[in-house]
Amino acid sequence: MSKKIVYKKGYKQFYMPKTQPGIVEVRRMAFLMINGSGDPNGGEFVKATEALYSLSYAVGSFDDEPESFARMEAFCIEHGYIRASKIHREIYLSDPRKTGPTKLKTVLRFPVISADARTCI
To answer: DSSP assignment of 83-115, as one string?
Structure first.
């Protein structure tokens, strides 16, 4: 039997980010995800998230996402990066069925390019 991988411990740089934005190079890896757009508080998103957790479970509040993305984009500008697209990734570290809204944790990521070199990172 293979050894259980605890991502929050073995890959802290990816799954336990600091509270301030930063640049992280993420290598290719397999993962489960839901793909979509729109309000993360909507019914379809809730159903998709429940399905994802039933398959994969071992987020400040979803309402805080616009502020978090604004901080991330400001960080990019200050450090010479540009957001490469509006596509982003959300990594849920808490199960919303078991965790109160104020304790939810989510890692937010989006691809960036260097403002100088225009090289995709």
So the answer is: E--S--EEEE-S-TTTS-GGG--EEEE--EEET
Kindly tell me the number of DSSP H helices and DSSP E strands found in the chain: 4, 4
Calpha distance 38→107 (Å, rounded): 18
DSSP, collapsed to helix, strand or coil, labels residue 61 as coil
Other CB atoms within 10 A of residue 13 CB: 11
Q: How far apart are CA 104 and CA 26, in angstroms?
A: 23
> Could you identify the residue written with the tokens 């400001």?
74
Q: What is the pLDDT of residues 15-70, one digit of tens each?
A: 777 888 888 887 777 666 777 777 777 777 777 776 665 445 437 667 788 888 88
Here the tokens at position 65 are 């996402």
Say how far apart CA 71 and CA 46 lie, in whole Å: 26
